Amino acid sequence: MLLDTSDHKMGSEALKSPAICFCCLVIFGTLLDAATALNEPGIRLRLSERGLSYAATLAVDALARKVRDTTIPDQSGNVKTSVGKVDYELSGITIKRFSFSSSSVSVNPGVGLTWMLRDLEVAIQGNWRYNYKRGFIRIRDHGTFDGSVAQSAIDVSVTLGMDAAPGAGRPTIRSVGCDSRLGTIAIQLDGGASWLYNAFVGQLEGNIRRALQDVVCRRIRRAVDEDAGSSLSSLQVVVPVADDDLRLDLGLVEPPRFQPGSVEFPLKGQFVHGDDVTLGYPSTADPFQLVDSDQMVTIGISEYTLKTAGYVLFHRGLFRHNLTSADLSSTSERNFLSTSGTGLCFGRLVPAVGRRYPNATVELEMTATGPPDALISAKGVRIRASVSTTFRARPSDGSLFYLLAADVSATAGMTVTLGESALRGNLTGFVPAIVVTDSGVGSVDDSALQTVMKLAARLFVAPRLNEALQKGVAWSSFGKFRPANHRLETQSQFLQIHTDVIYEPGAE
């Protein structure tokens, strides 16, 4: 199993997050269609109520900015006072302050989310004008007023879905209700004969409160439906992970699931080549269920996702390499490819080659016969690969002679580590099994070639693959969110990442 990276520049690209996606979608946007639909997701992403509430708390300022400076429809009418009927008009009513000290999210299983805003404080300003007429007495006056509301609460009900457009796989968001319970409104008038207005202003407070409740709910629902919805409609769900061509499709395979205490996003989890998401994969993902966690975010990465990475790289022709002495860094390492070297050299391990082609070097043309396979269990990760190998001798005059061909089945353990920014791997314990399929030098002992392949793996194959694996795949591109308290577990058929997140406004 070889990874030819000579013509592919490795790099990374930060993912774009939605501007206002309230709650869980703030995080989902950092992380997010093949022609054949999947029955099961390759990746599952779960957000707990604690994670949702943390994200909602961070969305408070953005929501407050949306509501501030909203105008309330003018109010007019007449009221009866001790001195007679007074016609009034309140105009230019504007919300100047909108804040709340408590924000949380609860999950309604099978239904959606409820965003609960508590200890709400609202301040409004406006203009007042009145007209009083009794007999030949006529009085007109005007001024300004201030109003404030405290001890209020708002509940916003939201549901999440999936874009129905073919190949989209993006989440959608829609508000389904808003319950605004504003407390008593206190109004103070200034200017003109405000003493007269203050005498009957209590009769107007109910109208203003109802109008304010209606405006606030409509503005919040518009922020969810239009602002967050617009951001999600352009969400990038096929994201680069290792180079300009290798991408990961994180489109939804079905709408998010609302479970007790969490919401779960079933994601495709397929690696793709460039923008081509039509590559036919030989298998589909097997079902798996995340293990419960009390952390904000839980991510499950299945065997299937790792297999699709191998499948794409195989079809790009990257699992092939012609191993020569030029690939080895020292004289002692190059010795094993010599036909006349010392110790464990090829000519001593396969004497027929040493006798026929003395003072030559051996080249190994290695080509994977199929995509590598990944197996995940509670004990760790193992990789399996099959490689067709052709051995040739190159004397000092530069000519090239065919020696033999063999099929190699290899397994290796892979240690997976979780850093703050990337998921990295390291191959260990390479075990080859080799069968000679053709020979131009007579009978060859399979066990001798097995020693050759172990040396090739230790000196070249494993270091080359580990160099790529150590560059890793970014898993925590949350924009201004930084993972904290993260840990990795290997479960039966999937890897599971648990993490909290911390918001850092200054982060890129």
Describe this structure in words.
The chain is α+β, with helices and mostly antiparallel strands and 508 residues long. Helix content is 23%, strand content 44%. It is built from ten helices and 23 strands. It has helices at 22-31, 49-58, 60-67, 194-200, 205-233, 303-315, 331-334, 346-349, 351-356, 446-471; strands at residues 43-48, 71-72, 75-81, 84-108, 112-134, 137-162, 171-181, 185-190, 238-240, 246-249, 257-259, 262-267, 270-273, 297-302, 320-323, 361-368, 373-377, 380-394, 401-418, 422-439, 473-474, 481-491, 494-503. Strands 2, 3, 4, 5, 6, 7 and 8 form a seven-stranded antiparallel beta sheet that branches. A hairpin with a 2-residue loop joins strand 22 (481-491) and strand 23 (494-503). Helix 1 packs across helix 2. The chain is rod-shaped. Residues 1-38 have low confidence and may be disordered.
Q: Quick one: biggest sheet?
A: 7 strands, antiparallel
Helix tally? 10
Mean pLDDT: 85
Proportion in β-strands? 35-45%
Q: Write down the Rg.
A: 34 Å
Quote the distance from N terminus to C terminus.
Answer: 37 Å
Secondary-structure class = alpha+beta
Q: State the total count of DSSP E strands.
A: 23
Task: Sum up the overall morphology in one term.
Answer: rod-shaped
**Multimerization state:** single chain
Low-pLDDT ranges:
1-38
Helix coverage percent = 10-25%
